[in-house]
Amino acid sequence: MVQSKPQYKRILLKLSGEALAGDLGYGIDPVVIKGIASEIRDVIELGVEVALVIGGGNIFRGLAASSQGMDRASADYMGMLATMMNSLAMQDALENEGVITRVQSAIEMQEIAEPYIRRRAVRHLEKGRVVIFGAGTGNPYFTTDTAASLRAMEINADVILKATKVDGVYTADPKKDKAAVKIPELTYLEVLRKGLQVMDATATSLCMDNNLPIVVFDLTERGNIKKVVMGEAIGTTVKGG
Description:
The chain has 9 helices and 11 strands. It is of the alpha/beta class.
């Protein structure tokens, strides 16, 4: 049943870096980022508090670089810098839509972003500002999925919205297997046992330990962020058994 008011008061939206690249496959597509920013503005206008974590895979993938022989820690720090580039681009796009935005970085870079301070982040959200958490957790070996789970817990978000290019979790890759079926609801343990590509195991375990639901949905369809926030049954919801 679709509600007349938002189902969630405070959300953490997790975007992959690839989502910002659109069809370009690399870098930031100005049309795509503008579209995402306008959708976030629509959600803000409902009175929902929005925090963001954005990956950096459209610019640099630390894991891929380390598999080619680069030191893993160095590669991961480069990935964190890529997330900051995406965060600043998203801040600009949101402010062009009239949404006041703050970027907080887990690695200090005072000229371009605030340091991550949990209480300050919560205060920004209470004032209706969007907060973008950049540079992951600030530590190598942790993904931006884990950063999203951690920050969602720290700000007491009601849900993590994991925006992807498919409309939920399937029994197999729907592009390769025509018999693949979408799974509307999963438990955290099912995700972990089956190795489903919802979020990595660390992030999923963190959500499970704190009973934080995850909704996986298709970002490419216009208006989907608002639909999820309003409680429409799109995508796949991961929660306790």
